[in-house]
Design brief:
There is one protein chain. The chain is mainly beta. The protein contains no helices and eight strands. A six-stranded antiparallel beta barrel has the order 1-6-4-3-7-8.
């Protein structure tokens, strides 16, 4: 993958198993999807680069670098341990926990 800037965050992503309502197929490198970071009425689209694997199976936990399409929405909000959800339409398909904030502008004071 090629990007014009560094990733915004690194996170552990835990995909929900198919039989519990998760995806039916793997998510592949470049997976671009909605993320809910707890701002009412705002969804942040981000693209994933999985670390150490090409895809993530339903039920699998992976480490991922994320590039936000609109990083400014998260300015001064994120810190390691921050929890969020990964959504396809109105359905949650994974849970995420920030492990590292790479984009300094997004770091909270916590």
């Amino acid at each position: 993958m090629s990007y014009n800037r560094n990733p915004d965050i690194e996170a552990d992503i835990s995909f929900i198993p198919t039989n519990e309502g998760g995806r039916a197929t793997p998510a592949w490198q470049g997976y671009r999807v909605d993320h809910d970071f707890g701002i009412k009425g705002r969804i942040n689209v981000a693209q994933h680069e999985f670390i150490g694997c090409d895809s993530a199976e339903p039920g699998q936990k992976v480490r991922s670098r994320l590039w936000f399409m609109v990083p400014e929405q998260q300015k001064n909000r994120l810190h390691p341990g921050f929890k969020f959800t990964v959504c396809e339409g109105g359905r949650i398909v994974a849970y995420g926990i920030v492990t590292r904030v790479i984009n300094q502008e997004l770091r909270s004071g916590i």
